[in-house]
Amino acid sequence: MRSTRSALRVSVCASLGEAAVAELFGACTGGAVLTAWALHLGASPFTIGLLAALPFAAQILQVPGAWLTLTFGPKAVAIAAIGASRLLWLPMVALPFVELPAGTALHVLVGVVALAAVFGVIGNNAWTAWIGELVPGAIRGRFFSRRTVYISIASTVASLGAAEALDGLSPRGWKGPALGGLAAVACIAGALSLYLLHRQHDPARGRARERPDWRALITAARAPQAWPFLRYLMAWNSAVALSASFFSLHMLVNLRTGFALAALYGVGVATVRIISAPFWGRAVDRLGARPVLVLCSFGIAAVPAIWLFVTPAFLWPLAIEAALAGTLWGGHGIASMDLTVKLSSGRERPLYLALFAAASGLGFAVAAAMAGLLASHLPERLDLLGETWTNLHVLFLLSALARVLAAWPALRIQEPGAQDVRTFVTRTFKWPAVVSRASFRSPAPS
Asked: Angle at the Cα of 199 (from 194 to 205), degrees rounded to 5?
């Protein structure tokens, strides 16, 4: 028992460290940095949408990923696939220093992102199955909340550093070398993440491997607890994808914020996630993930609409958006991860995970590609109601409306033991009231 607890403690610490290192990798290869790569290589809005869609289109490989996980074990597959997905960025270190036609260089970027996405999908399926076995259900919500804190802190530091590098070096004509340097940092982070993954305990070690029964895939798809969640994931990710790929582009091109201010916005979101994560983690463990997911989904629907009111001379609504997005996306991430693991128990967990991720990826990929195509065909400027709008504003409005519709299927998700939404709201807002009354209650006479 003591050795098991010790192994769990070491594994949790290593997992939290790996989360921070993985976020460093992500800050140097995704988000605004990926947009900077695309703009540097002359990408169109459609190509930018395609780049964002690739990691989600690759989710169709979740089923082969589940087979690999069941055949070779989650730890081995996770380390091999995640390591490959991160070290594939090595060619991007040299790309700015090699004379290539702009079109060829852009193809290299698309190829690296696509291959990294393929290995990332396989690795994430194995990692989630691994964590589901490693972390006990009673503390899983708090584990994911702590992981969110580590991710947010790492994201804050890494995003600011990447933004300062790009803003400082781009005006001097060194944008290419700056991007190559960030790719080098990402690869170093990827190598370190392999060590931290290796440090984590494998609960399935020594367990006999059975041949996967693919009939279980059909059973999983028809399972009463899985089907409502599948429908929600596909609808929700489709709605989110209509705008998610274009916020960084809008800030850099239309709002002219520069990389530093874009990173500062990310810091604001991360800070709010750090503050709210412990609350969401405790709420998920005590009251269930379903009510958290429902509330956060309906709240997140307002996020794209706020961007309609932001202009280069009127940026302060982004502060409201950052607070709202940080709080709600933090809760949504913890609840959705907890539900993903909770609804996929047993040996068939990798198959359930494959279905959930494939539904998410398919919805996101198709919607992101359509959004990029729509943005490419819309006029860059639209005059309507006495205001000038951009083609991206259309996507933000469509995404806000679609998120409202996509949040409704969350009400049908089944989670054993979870509180209903009304009870959750009552108990959640009762806690601060109790604390407030206790704080201001007069002391008893001595």
From this structure: 105
**56 CB-contact burial (10 Å; exposed 0-12 / middle 13-18 / buried 19+):** buried
In terms of C-beta distances under 8 Å and separation of at least 24 residues, what long-range contacts does 188-193 make, across chains too?
Answer: 189/21, 189/22, 189/24, 189/25, 189/28, 189/86, 190/25, 190/83, 190/86, 190/87, 190/89, 191/83, 191/86, 191/87, 192/21, 193/18, 193/21, 193/22, 193/25, 193/82, 193/83, 193/86
How far apart are alpha carbons 34 and 245 in whole angstroms? 10
Give me the mean pLDDT over the 317-345 stretch: 87
User: Would residue 224 be called left, alpha or beta, if left means φ above 0 and alpha means ψ between -120 and 50 degrees?
Assistant: alpha
Please report, for the chain, how many H helices and E strands are present, in that order. 19, 2
Closest CA to 412 of 262, 242, 229: 229
**387: three-class secondary structure by DSSP:** strand
The token pair at 289 is 């993930």
Alpha helices in 30-101 (DSSP H): 31-40, 45-57, 62-72, 74-87, 90-94
**What pLDDT, in 10s, does the model give residues 414-442?**
887 777 778 878 776 664 444 334 333 43
Query: How, if at all, do strands 381-384 and 387-390 pair?
Result: antiparallel
Structural domains of the chain sorted by starting position, each given as residue range(s) with its CATH number in brackets: 7-201+223-426 (1.20.1250.20)
pLDDT tens for residues 65-102?
Answer: 888 888 888 888 999 999 999 999 999 999 988 888 77
Taking the model in full, what pTM does it have? 0.69
**Among the residues of 88-201, which ranges form H helices?**
90-94, 102-134, 140-169, 175-198
18-28 per-position pLDDT tens digit: 889 998 998 88
203-230: per-residue pLDDT in tens? 766 555 556 666 666 776 677 777 888 8
Burial class (CB in 10 A: 0-12, 13-18, 19+), 199: middle
Please give the structure tokens belonging to residue 243. 């705008």
Kindly report the number of other CB atoms within 10 A of residue 295's CB atom.
21
Contact, 340 vs 232, CB < 8 A? no
How far is it, in rounded angstroms, from Cα 231 to Cα 63?
18
* Ramachandran angles phi, psi of 387, nearest 5°: -125, 155
Of 83, 79, 177, 186, nearest to 126 (Cα)?
79
How many CB atoms lie under 10 A from the CB of residue 99? 5
